[in-house]
Amino acid sequence: MPRNLGQTRLRKRRRAENPMREFDRLPPVLRAWVSQAALPWRPRSVLRAYQNALAQTGDQGRALEELGRLEALQLAKDSTGAATA
After folding, report:
1. Sign, CA torsion 70/16/7/10
2. Is 78:10 a contact under the CB 8 Å cutoff?
3. What pTM did the predictor assign?
4. Cα(48)–Cα(50) distance, rounded to whole angstroms?
């Protein structure tokens, strides 16, 4: 059965938690961001990154921009790994 992770070289891990329950607990603005994200973020990971960015910036919009920057870094890491493989 194909998974929704696509062709990525990034690490994949199985989790014991219920990801949908964790997703439902996210703030609405963060749920909206994750639903448009290019990578399959874990709810706990995206919440931690968002809270850190929010603490640093003090602004919700800038915190979401920081999440986009983090995601772009991961995408670049994945694309450079695919080019060398």
Report:
1. positive
2. yes
3. 0.71
4. 5
> What is the residue whose two structure tokens read 């995206």?
46
Residue with tokens 């963060």: 30
Res. 77: pLDDT tops 50 = yes
CA dihedral 26, 29, 31, 34 (to 10 degrees): -120
Tokens of 24: 């439902």
Q: Rounded to an integer, what distance in angstroms lies between the CA atom of residue 70 and that of residue 59?
A: 17
Mean pLDDT, rounded, for 35-62: 94
Q: How far apart are CA 81 and CA 10, in angstroms?
A: 9
